Amino acid sequence: MFARSAARALSAPTAARLFSASATARTKVAVLGAGGGIGQPLSLLLKNDPLVTSLSLYDIRGAPGVAADVSHVDTGSEVNGYAADQLDQALEGVKVVVIPAGVPRKPGMTRDDLFNTNASIVRDLATAVGRVAPDAHILVISNPVNSTVPIVASTLQKAGVYDPRRVFGVTTLDVVRAARFLAGLVDASPAETGVTVVGGHSGATIVPLLSQSSFGKTITGEKLDKLVHRIQFGGDEVVKAKDGAGSATLSMAYAGAKFTNALLRGLNGEKGVVTPTFVQSPLFADQGVDFFSSNVELGPNGVEKIHPIGQVTEYEEKLLAACLPELKKNIEKGRAFVA
Ligand code: NAD
Ligand code: LMR
User: EC number(s) for this protein (predicted)?
Assistant: First the structure.
């Protein structure tokens, strides 16, 4: 699927690469919410990942149909679809669970406005994973990610099966956007304009560390303000353009498949797979922020090593100062929901 070296994996892979890598080890992956706007194209992209042996597609509506459709694609993996009352069967033997279940935003809404609906969806799915596949790695896409990831962690903790190395918030779309938007400004390929994006996944909690990119550090002044704003609020652009029909689905499916592939490569023992993801983290725990996205090395157990954020400019310090209090609130809200 995606390029096999870590450096290239974090740059923008071409569609052709989705079909090209050869498999080493293989794994059963479940998509919970497979009938949705993200779930369907994500399932298709995962069907094309040679590291996926078996695809288990679950939704409260439509998953058997999506599975029948995707199963005709001529790649090696088998595909099974499960109806609303078959969640436990869908999770049997699964090593990686990707969760895009839940409602998306409409114009005028924040991601936090989705909390009331999505918190219980994510909690109930995490409860089932803890019961049926307690060793699985859980990749949370459902918003608000800053709260749904702590919800998954606390739910598993309650069940006595929480391992912080196996719970991830998927923030890859922010990284994908940052590379794409920067590439457009400096007239380079997104493969060369990778940006480490840290913090969380909503507005001011999204902190692109442009100074750490050779292209990014050339952007200054008003241009920098505009680029940072575009990376932080890229989701709003799509919500507005879709005009009530939802939020990013296709670029998110791409980002979700990209992160899943990175994790699978790490699980299979590939060295040097490093990408930003929102995990339980010591980096700002002394400020009460115990989940944070930064570069994480992925390995056979999931999170192998959490990298520090590295050197940042005064400008980026200010972005971090705005990020942390909001992130803290979002995390506490998620934890409180489960408590
Ligand atoms: P969608 O409405 O098109 O699809 C959601 C799917 O979830 C539906 O098929 C629905 O039936 C299913 N679902 C609802 N409750 C369920 C349950 N209990 N179990 C299983 N499936 C259930 O929405 P979408 O556009 O695919 O977005 C899904 C979520 O992803 C939203 O919360 C959205 O905000 C989020 N999202 C996150 C990112 C990110 O970067 N992390 C990016 C885009 C969207
Ligand atoms: C995104 O960044 O596109 C997603 O989080 C969806 C949204 O609500 O913006």
Answer: 1.1.1.37
Give the number of whichever ligand sits closest to the CA of residue 32: 1
Please state, in angstroms and rounded to a whole number, the distance separating the CA atoms of residues 200 and 174: 10
Atom of ligand 1 nearest to the CA of 101: 7
Range of lowest pLDDT (6-20, 80-94, 117-131):
6-20
ipTM of the complex model: 0.99
- Ligand 2 pocket (Cβ < 6 Å) reads 104-105, 111, 143, 173, 235, 238-239, 247-248
Could you list the residues known to form a binding site, using ranges. Answer: 33-39, 59, 105, 111, 118, 141-143, 177, 252
Give the Cα separation of 23 and 265 in Å (integer).
Answer: 10
Q: Phi and psi at residue 184, in whole multiples of 5°?
A: -65, -30
Q: Is the full-model pTM beyond 0.80? A: yes
Nearest residue to 55 via CA among 326, 192, 260, 249: 260
Pick the catalytic residue: 72, 137, 201, 307?
201
| Backbone angle region of 288, left / alpha / beta, with phi > 0 → left and psi within -120 to 50 → alpha | left
Evaluate whether 303 touches 265 at the Cβ level (below 8 Å).
Answer: no
